[in-house]
Design goal:
about 110 residues, alpha+beta, four-stranded antiparallel sheet, 7 strands
Length: about 110
């Protein structure tokens, strides 16, 4: 009986340890906003849309917003794998691109504002 209890305890301990070791990799993207002379655009508003930009917004559409830092980069942690439209806007200049996010990957994309 002691052997059965010891074996059961050992199996239980191993299964708990194994399940605690697996971690989900982050999914996200880094968007870099640049002007026509390839310089970073600081303070640009970055919008990620999982559907087309045109309204009306429908249930199931996803939108994420961010702002570029001093290096012209905006960082997003996004739990959903999808193809996103990127819209970057600063004052009177803007730019568009598309990006595909896959679970467990961090993808980088540059957008030229003109």
């Amino acid at each position: 009986m002691k052997r059965i209890f010891a074996a059961f305890s050992f199996v239980l301990l191993i299964s708990i340890m194994a399940s605690g070791c697996k971690k989900d990799e982050p999914t996200g993207c880094i968007i870099t906003a640049k002007d026509l002379s390839d310089k970073p655009v600081v303070g640009a508003n970055i919008y990620l849309h999982a559907k087309d930009i045109a309204p009306p917004k429908k249930e199931g559409d996803f939108e994420y917003k961010g702002k570029t830092d001093s290096q012209g980069k905006a960082y997003f942690d996004i739990p959903l794998e999808a193809i996103y439209t990127i819209e970057a806007v600063k004052d009177s200049i803007s730019g568009f691109s598309r990006i595909r996010l896959r679970k467990g990957e961090t993808v980088e994309e540059s957008v030229i504002l003109e």
